Amino acid sequence: FRSQQEGFSLVETLVAITILLIVVVGPMKIIISASNSTSFSGEQVVAFFLAQEGAEIAQKARDDLVLKKYIPDIAPNVHDPEYIEKPWDDFTDTSGTYRRCFESNGCRMELNSDSNVGGLKSADSCVAGSDNKCLLYIANTPGKRSRYTYDVNSGTNPNTKTPYTRVVSFDATGLPAGQLKVTSKVTWRTGSLKDVQQVEVVTYLFDVYGS
After folding, report:
1. Stated pTM of the model
2. Residue 211 placed within a domain
3. What tens digit of pLDDT does each residue of 11-31 get?
């Protein structure tokens, strides 16, 4: 009596490997896809709050100027040096403090976290030569009022570059007197996606005090 043992044929082996790959690779793709989706959702949330912050800083810029209209005189008929008679005109002056925000490239608006805490940093242009001046960084110096900054360095500490760029734009075209459109746009690239992602917050500011 002779015992015969037969192994798997080549076809059977290939079928088994194919089934194994489907079983293993399928869940892996789902996990990777879910991970990318979660990462993108997190980036969207950050981008939205950064865009919202930009719009709120623009409103603060208006409010800070309005408050200067109500600074008491330092003497009878002698205004304080900080006094502003027509704050709305100053705010919407296309050749004034916020002139860069009226330009096509927009401007950068940021709270001042160093000296003059509570004030605003200069609203500079987003473009200087080939540099992107509106790219955001994470401040690596403890105690900063705002975690995100346009500054490459905080003092002697280099800040961490983020994928986000925030541009604030002003536009009064076609609007009635006493109105201003503010657009705060945040853009970034995520993962392997080629398209630039974008979150935009639009608000309208008014000359609420008739100033």
Report:
1. 0.77
2. no
3. 666 666 677 666 655 555 554
